[in-house]
């Protein structure tokens, strides 16, 4: 058995280094590849390190089983797929080797010299370095085209961000392959040009420096500064706590001094950090679990201003380096460092205030200059950001919705981005067709952002939100160029409605749950066109059953109903691009939904509503039946008005509040009013 991905066949892969992060990387590979029969070899020169690694890995697998995210038989496969060894010769036959050893150039050189001697010339060589550039790590090897950095973040088995950093001689095709591979196994990779410490760590270590400088300036103690960092940046714990728990003083000390030389004069290991390293002390004076830390208002304001000036300035400085896309950096910092994304935060705050904070920080900190990119963003009244990634496959534009934290849930920003990118595609003479898909393998779109719906206070709000999303679906429907949906994973709510507006749909096969319209569980009805387009696509009775019961539909059921046009094994993107191109060449192949009335029975068949609201069901039936008896345009207007009516029911307030407080799996206690 093997894992096949494009041109790559993975039968065996190896991780070198059983210390802090290597076992977690091995666990991530094992959870995703063990079912394919891929052997994973964890190599270290120390038996005791391997023993600790095995214990750590098996403990995490046990927690996954106890938490229900991993079945017992899957856990057995995961544990059984990993070989722990001190014998480097077990690397022979590996298709991919990833080094996760210490940040020491001589050590990395010795490791890769041994790997090159043992492994075949087509074996991919990766380093999990957090600072060292690929040219430094791999420069002595014979075949450098197969080498690059894949920088993980803690905890590596769960944190989806990976920085993919090719060297000057890395084969571009390999870089593209690795980007796709990591997405296929559940990561959110970002491509970064070779630069010391890459894109994310200069921001993290710069903020550590800022925290220590605040302490040295007497603005607060470690506990107080951590508390302000948590409130200011939305972190789980502050920077003193992070480097204490990760034993990160030494690597941060070295990294800051290197960045002083290589990146910007302001970077420099502070005096008290050097003293900690000299004394061999790992821990700062941080708060204990559950300890409450009180910070006075004036002190909080001064620390907050330092943090924000530093954070915004560092993020803009990385943009000045030109090594990473702004949307990639905003996403990566937010997820990898568990912080509010910097560019999003600046836009929300307002550029004048953000600029003033950075300007004051520059005045107070010699060597930190105002980034040119921030000057431009201020002149433009904000950073242009998008959670939709645009690419091209020949003459087909691919729009990928990317919000990993929310399984690609739709929000107003994504709707606006899709509208803009679709207009651009329509106007681009080099684009013949468009494919819309989602990031990763779990979800195309998991629905609409619940905060947007929960913010509705009256019928007018509900009507406005519905019509705004309908405008996007109408735009897709009326495009001269065909738009095809590639359902790379599940589609819920707004995701189904987005797909219904497309000319055709290609989906990943084998999914027990591909599509669902769960709105009745929230005490509302679909407002993005589902009550009108689904009956016109699969028939009123079949559509009514799915809409009224919020029933899930598998891949096979979706094909049988006509909800999707084609199923494929694995990623449907390639098939969707091919179909889009055929539709562009022969417009006669496009199947438009009826725009007038469609056959509708006098009464809909009875369905079992269970706990669902009978009041909301009455409104939903009205939308389906009256919509089917009129035109599509009139039906969309009707749906929006009825979606607004739902907002003013008691059951909508109950359903939305229940979802926010208890999550999707907790049924609401509707009162049918």
Task: Write the SSE topology.
Elements: E1 3-5, E2 8-10, E3 12-16, H1 22-33, E4 39-43, H2 47-67, H3 72-80, E5 82-85, E6 96-99, H4 105-118, E7 124-127, H5 134-138, E8 147-152, E9 161-166, H6 172-184, E10 188-191, H7 201-216, H8 222-233, H9 239-245, H10 249-262, H11 271-279, H12 297-321, H13 326-336, H14 342-349, H15 351-364, H16 372-379, E11 388-393, E12 396-401, H17 412-427, E13 433-438, E14 443-445, H18 450-454, H19 459-477, E15 483-487, E16 490-492, H20 494-500, E17 504-508, E18 515-516, H21 530-538, H22 540-549, H23 555-561, E19 566-568, H24 573-585, H25 614-628, H26 632-647, H27 650-662
Parallel strand pairs: 3-4, 3-6, 4-5, 6-7, 7-8, 9-10, 12-13, 13-15, 14-16, 15-17, 16-18, 17-19
Antiparallel strand pairs: 1-2, 8-9, 11-12
Could you describe the 3D structure shown?
- The N and C termini lie far apart (56 Å).
- The protein is built from 27 helices and 19 strands.
- Helix content is 49%, strand content 12%.
- The strands form 4 sheets. An 8-stranded mixed sheet has the order 5-4-3-6-7-8-9-10, with helices on both faces. Strands 11-12-13-15-17-19 form a 6-stranded mixed sheet, sandwiched between helices.
- The model has no long low-confidence stretch (mean pLDDT 96).
Name some characteristics of this structure.
673 residues, alpha/beta, single chain, eight-stranded mixed beta sheet
User: How far apart lie the N and C ends?
Assistant: 56 Å
Strand order of the largest sheet: 5-4-3-6-7-8-9-10
Shape: globular
Question: Can you count the helices?
Answer: 27
Mean pLDDT metric: 96
Largest sheet properties:
8 strands, mixed
Percent of residues in helices? 40-55%
Beta content comes to: 5-15%
**Helix vs. strand class:** alpha/beta
Return residue spans where pLDDT drops below 50 for at least 5 consecutive residues.
Answer: none
Radius of gyration: 27 Å
Number of strands: 19
